[in-house]
Amino acid sequence: MKITKKYDKAVKKGTVATASGTRCVELTPTLPLKKKTVAWAAELPCFESLELQALISDIEEFFAAVFCSGDVATARLDLLVKVERPTNWLDFEAGLRIGCVGLLLVWALWDCLVDSTIQASSASRQISASIPVYRGCGCLILLVWCWGLDIYVWTRARVNYLFIFDSDHANTMGHNEV
Question: Residue 169 gets which letter from DSSP?
């Protein structure tokens, strides 16, 4: 079917693919190839077989009796192939990261504000011990963000940075992925 759709689309545009490239041709078939193919396939004996129709109705009735309380129309709808929408994992990943950052911020505020009032002597030790950890994590995050910003700027300016840095083209991430 995909081949016939592609052929019909090319014929509508008036282009045909050849070994030397595409060329414009005046092609006006009386009936598109897809419709001809579907009509030809519908006339095949395997689609008009009474045994096949009987098997289909038996399966629908059995499914209706077991899963749909005997309702054949509901069984037919349930047996149709459903195209499910793919899961967008980017939203989940962004929510997970924002949640982790929020938890770390709450923890840092708790240590600085609540624990410092309970134990005044240990507050300065806690702050002096935790600040370098957050500073180190912040520097790593800033490094990755700047790397992504560099890739974005180089891509927009059409700089071939992969050639300049002699990078592997197959394993290189874009600025969104970084």
Answer: S
Give residue 177's region: left, alpha or beta (phi > 0; psi -120 to 50): alpha
Domain boundaries, the chain: 2-79, 89-164
pLDDT in tens, 18-44: 555 555 545 554 456 667 777 777 777
Q: Dig out the tokens for 107 from the structure.
A: 């923890």
Tens-place pLDDT, residues 84-106: 777 777 888 888 999 999 998 88
Task: State the DSSP H helix or E strand holding residue 170, giving kind and residue range, or none if neither.
Answer: none
Asked whether 67 and 75 are in contact (CB, 8 A), the reply is yes
What is the spatial distance between Cα 60 and Cα 71, in angstroms, rounded to a whole number? Answer: 9
Contact between residue 135 and residue 112 where contact means Cβ atoms under 8 Å apart: no
Cα end-to-end distance, the chain, whole Å: 39
